[in-house]
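hey so i finaly got around to running the thing on Regulator of G-protein signaling 2-like isoform X1 from Acipenser oxyrinchus oxyrinchus. pasting the sequence first so u can double check i didnt mess up the copy paste, my clipboard has been acting weird all day
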Amino acid sequence: MQSTLFLALQHNSSQMETACFSCLDTAETPVKNKKSRHKDWRALFNNILRCTPSPHTATDTHPLTNKAYRPTSDEVNQWAQSFDKLLAHKYGQAAFRIFLKSEYCEENIEFWLACEEYKKIKSPVKLASKAKKIHEEFIWNKALKEINLDYHTKKVITQNLHQPTATCFNTAQKKVYSLMENNSYPRFLLSEIYQELCSVSQEKSKYRKT
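ok and heres what it spat out for the 3d tokens, dont ask me to read them lol
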């Protein structure tokens, strides 16, 4: 159970994010039935485990950089305190993304993350390029990962593409965040994924104390 559910994530956050999300991006789309969903999220945990860089293959790095990191029971429990705490934790964010994939709405977290990266861009040229990419991937009515937005919000974004600013996706990002917080997040806390994560983390905590 532990080898399947507890991701051997690297202490270095950039390596961890690459390992987690590259596996999610390359995973096959699940067949729409309960048994396939169950197998699919378990397969994603296994994929992440396989994609996580091994500390034995790294060279010339600080020992802590390659230290395998697993969230404690307290950290996993904190994810239930607020949606912000879940998203702020790389492990929690990855688990939530796997859950969204099992519900066929992972485009919401992908869009939210893309907006977070977009707001960090300083170069006007890169900002315009990224804005166009986000629009084509999530906003355009023929986008493969089209998110659920009202006509007015989409129209304003399209108009802003002529002179994109760091805030041109803010309204859409807030709407998607609210959708995840009020709909997907409560279901995640009741999901088998989160319940098993809580169970395994508690077992590990008890083991450390003995």
